Task: structure prediction
Amino acid sequence: MPDGATVKTSKAAVGYHGMSTIIVDRNTPGFIIGKREEKMGIRAADVSELIFENCRVPKTNLLGKEGKGFKIFMEALDGGRIGMASQALGIAEETLKLSKDYLKVRVQFGKPLEKQQGLQWYIADMATKVSAARALIYEAAMTMDRGENCTEIAAIAKYYASEMAVEVTNKALQIYSGYGYMRDYPLERMYRDARIVPIYEGTSEIQKNIIAREELKK
Result:
């Protein structure tokens, strides 16, 4: 499988100008895949350093126009952010389901946990935020499908959904109490997986910068 790279193709250009996107075949001499990183979460997805040592590729590997690499990269991020928001939503949806199932079967002091008003409020908060994130993600995806500018709504969906997933999995750990902290149950992994989403494809702070910038253009 080939990999993509955004590189500087103009020495005279300043900042992000003069960057181009190229396709690098995995068997290209000088292209080395570094060690597999050990991560806190999403351990099923390998992450490795990519090393380029005197790695030369033909001009035919140019993706798009020369000097437009940064624009291509930023446009790809819009779609990526919708995907990351969807990942957060999937984690949160399953977490909500597990929490409801647990409350229905767990009994304390002769009373099912689902009868505890405080825990019912947890479920209400979790369900509301999951539904709100789903609506934002659908709006972002439909905006992109229509070929319209989706930069702001993609950032909103990614920001909200990623923070929501962390909050929902955290509440689920409280519902499960000590059991949720144990690896016999899936919640500890789901919390670790959720925690990456506010970081990659642009941190939550970057998403807020984008949202504010787009709003101030109006």
Remarks:
- The mean pLDDT is 90.
- The chain has five helices and seven strands.
- The radius of gyration is 22 Å.
- The longest strand covers residues 3-8.
